[in-house]
Design brief:
179 residues
Amino acid sequence: MVVALTWDLLIIVFFALVVTYSLIIGRHEAVKVLVASHIAAFAAQGIGMGMMEGSVSAAPILQILGFAIGPTTIVMVKLVAFIGLLVAIAIHGGLSSDYEGESMLDTAIAAALGMATTAFLLLNLLAILGNSSPLSTTIADAPDLLPLFSQSTLAATLASLQSLWLILPAILLVGTSFL
């Protein structure tokens, strides 16, 4: 049996790693990671938008200095900012969650939160790589992502179900707060 490295395989492994990590850290910390991923995503998008606006207004000065801030630079800065902010906010962001007791249900909730976190992280990475926003309705049609979507049915499905991945964390957080 030959196993070829494909985008679908990488997405499955990423899902497995994040869900396993969520099970290891438990429900309390999984909530923190989910919230931190949303804060980091929108902060990184804001940084990218600020860079884009700043590069347009400072274009004459940047040209004189010999600098150019193109789409690739903005994508890389957004990606690095997202990862850095996610780690910083999850570890030092002052977020906390407190649920009474520990049960088998908490394990299932941690797994569900891990799946929601994974889907949002992948959606945000697709948005960054497609030079878009997680709230944009054009991720599935982003020209930069079309080759990926033709190679990966999971990535295409993830992008096409974008609204589900944006709504699912809120539903899980509110729904599980009663448990």
